[in-house]
Amino acid sequence: AEEVGGGDKDVVKEYFNNSGFQRWKKIYGETDDVNRVQRDIRLGHSKTVENVMAMLKDEGSLRGVTVCDAGCGTGSLSIPLAKEGAMVFASDISAAMVAEAENKAKEEVVGGVVPKFEVKDLESLEGKYDTVVCLDVLIHYPQNKADGMIAHLASLAEKRLIISFAPKTFYYDLLKRVGELFPGPSKATRAYLHSEADVETALRRAGWKIRKRGLISTQFYFATLVEAVPA
Ligand code: SAM
Known about the structure:
CATH architecture: 3-Layer(aba) Sandwich
Largest sheet: 7 strands, mixed
CATH topology: Rossmann fold
CATH class: Alpha Beta
Bound molecules: S-adenosylmethionine
């Protein structure tokens, strides 16, 4: 069911085209104008990207492998994938994010095929890909929305589906609640945590099973990373 007042998607889109774009472009970039928390999140996120690259390379070369990067942001994953020779189809709900990713890719991808970028929400993605990846996107959606997103992503993937999300454990749930009590000035969107069991159930209903799972955390960044394959 849609939420009252337009729903999360419009809010998320607006955020990632404006203040969220400015904030995350910095965090995902390389410049020094980040504070301690942002630097820590940058480190945690880079670990997630490294882990995904390792997962994807463990079955051999990525040359010619088709990868859908749903919610690609500034291209943190799409660019290294393209450098490895993968055929990357990258999309994001935010036009600002896609423009930034495209500019970076044109500069940085020399020995590979530049990803094909599109401004698109993941619900309207179509086609079939060897691998579908969706990193740190589910945090913007409650579990009832996330279930449908997971099912849709699974329908696009032929061999592998890799998803990361902020885990709903007692400790992190508490942290999040404390954060909500003392919202900082740049906290423009809600953050939703997901239980691994809920994500696993959504995958199972779609006919997929988890093959690998891991937790990536720094002081302020935490993500559960799962790799699923057809059951
Ligand atoms: N996946 C990228 C990464 O790990 O570097 C970006 C993560 S960023 C925290 C979340 C991204 O998801 C933003 O770029 C946002 O615009 C995008 N996003 C949020 N909801 C989306 C949706 N429904 N469809 C596509 N992209 C979405």
